Amino acid sequence: MSFAAKFLPRFKRVSAAAMMLAAGLTSQGAQAEFCCAGDPSNDVSDYGVIYSGDPHNLDFSKSTVIGNVGIGDNGGFIGSEGGTITGTLQFAGLQQNVSFYPDKVSIGAVIYGSGTVTESLASLNTISQNLRNEEGTPLHIAAGGSINASSGVLDAQGNYVFTANIKRNFKAGTTFMINGTSDQFVVINTTTGGLPLDGSFILSGGITPDHVLFNLDAGDYATLTGGDPLSIDTKGNPTSGLFLDPNGPINISDSMIFGRIFGGDTADASISDTTIVAPPPFAAPEPSSLALLGGGLITAFIVRRRNRRVRSRS
Q1: What are φ and ψ of residue 245, in 5° steps?
Q2: Is the dihedral of CA 19, 25, 29, 35 positive or negative?
Q3: By the 8 A CB rule, do 219 and 194 touch?
Q4: Choosing a second label site near 137 at 20 to 30 A (CA), which of 5, 109, 284, 304?
């Protein structure tokens, strides 16, 4: 098991996560090869977050996305209490049709009428629906558990497929290990039953976040309704993977995610007190900027911990 996941004190885990970020973004080997069922016919891997919209809002508060954010249909963006999107915020809708209130959120650039967002959402929904029909090795995601990628059912596209449910003990501060090599792809068709994914998914053996897909596949793909909620609150601990939920609501809070968040049903989505680090191929910062970013992640963690103590005493 990764020392950063289990043995280090929590502050040191955040330091390790910041160093992992710098190493990953500056390495040629870190370039994203999107999971799963073959590469989509568009630029899905250019995004850290793609939200369906339809035409609700992404509520974004005190968070950072290292990468681009896409919002589908005529969905809007409501910022509050600051935050950063290092890349572009791309709306599928035209400017006159969407709500955009960035408040104090710093955004690299804003684009309206993006056909790429629409195409990416369509590809993601198709991928999720196709994978739902595949046979997978039964799996319980529980605290302290682990799997080897090769124990999944190998499908025609080269993915190792699992069919999983969540146990109640997979809470913030617990871990689940996924062991695999850099050339293996893992698909975990996941039924949450309403339970959150608050524990940390730890990757080992060289497998990368873009090679591990958590496909929350419940619900109706025609209406984007009826799916399990994607709820993540790791209490600041790092977790990794690509989280896809086309038909369920999304609520991400107080987490550090190395990977991507895709989906959202016909309801508002929320990202608060969270850092999402999307793998390249988005334009990676210079090494000096990465050093500042790593320091910023640690500082943000300390401030968040102090604020939490203050709130608990009041």
Answers
A1: -140, 85
A2: positive
A3: no
A4: 5
Task: Measure the CA–CA gap between 30 and 308, rounded to whole angstroms.
Answer: 34
Q: Is the peptide bond before 36 cis (omega within 30 degrees of 0)?
A: yes
Distance CA 17, CA 124 (A): 28
Any idea what the Cα angle at residue 279 is, between residues 288 and 240, rounded to 5°?
Answer: 115
Residue type, 210: D
Contact 81/293 with Cβ under 8 angstroms?
no
Residues written for the chain: 314
Tokens found for residue 253? 């809070």
**Alpha carbon distance 289, 247 (integer Å):** 37
Beta pairing class for 185-191 and 212-216:
parallel
- How far apart (Å, rounded) are the C-alpha atoms in residues 257 and 93? 27
R_g (Cα) of the chain, nearest Å: 18
Chain segment 182-240, per-residue pLDDT in tens: 999 999 999 999 999 999 999 999 999 999 999 999 999 999 899 999 999 999 999 99
Query: Residue 61's CB: how many other CB atoms inside 10 A?
Result: 19
Strand extents, DSSP E, 53-180: 57-66, 68-71, 76-91, 100-101, 105-111, 137-141, 146-148, 153-154, 159-166, 175-179
**How many Cα atoms occupy the beta-carbon half-sphere of 90 within 13 Å?**
24
Q: What is the pLDDT of residues 268-308, one digit of tens each?
A: 999 999 999 998 754 444 444 444 555 555 555 555 555 55
| Residue with tokens 């939490």, as numbered in its chain | 308
Half-sphere exposure of 277 (CA within 13 A, CB side): 25
